[in-house]
Amino acid sequence: MNKVLKFFDIKICSSFFRFSLKTFSFLASNAYFVSAFSNDLTTKYNLREPASIMAADLHTVHWVLMGICLIIFVVVFGFMFYSIYAHRKSKGAKPADFHESTAIEIAWTAIPLLIVIGIGVYATPIVMAQKDTTNADITIKVTGYQWKWGYQYLRGEGEGIKFYQTLITPYEQRINKSPKTNDYLVEVDNALVVPIDKKIRMVITANDVIHAWSLPAVGVKQDAIPGFVRDSWFKANKLGTFTGQCSELCGKDHAFMPITLKVVSAEEYSEWVSDQTQAKVSSVNEDKVLTTEVLNVASTSVEQEGGK
Fold this sequence. Notes:
Blueprint: H1 2-7, H2 10-29, H3 31-42, H4 53-86, H5 102-129, E1 138-145, E2 148-155, E3 162-165, H6 171-174, E4 192-195, E5 200-206, E6 211-215, E7 220-224, E8 230-234, E9 240-246, E10 258-264, H7 266-287, H8 292-307
Parallel strand pairs: 1-5, 4-10
Antiparallel strand pairs: 1-2, 2-3, 5-8, 6-7, 6-9, 9-10
Helix pairs in contact: 4-5
């Protein structure tokens, strides 16, 4: 036991501290390295910029957990590598002959347990909030198909509107016969339109195989399962167009099943609803086919009215 205590003495701890300080000083002095890495960290290697409170909360959880993991990694591996270096055989170090320590075993069991409990207490309310779909302003049904999305506005402003969302990226781009645009594989014919600062409930299912409706910017990823109805929600707090993707392997065209969400102001949303409603009425009128029998009945009715 004395050898264990000697191993953890102040001299070793201070040496490890000096080693860590020198490493940090080297990185801090290399401004170009830090700047370049930070830029990539916040753009190329980071989560997408959140466009809802839920997504922002998930980002916070992610970075808190990453911070905890980083601290554990640095402490454990830093101490391990320092011990390997400081007590190497070539320096004349001899291995200790003890094989157990009740105090250390209790410590390495209790500390991880407390960390896990702390993470659970912190993250659980945020995760549970994802399932609170009550008091939604608008309810939209999402149906996954091979290989497109179907949307139907069930409640709220826009009730009755329905359409499909399909990839429109030219086939020539997919086979490298023409230059790819910035919207490659995320171009769709009909974007899902919602108003800003309104709670949107998504009722999600599938028609054929399992899909997953995933839109990282608003913090939603929900499996779409045939025969089951799952729900989620979001409340966008930024205007703009946000893209996602089916996140469940669903067949040969799984990669060609994008999701596009357009968040607009309340006024623009009302205008969009009005346009969609008028287009629906016009489409219904255009689809009417007047047969000879229908025309004869109408003509007879007019003649009878005239005879009176």
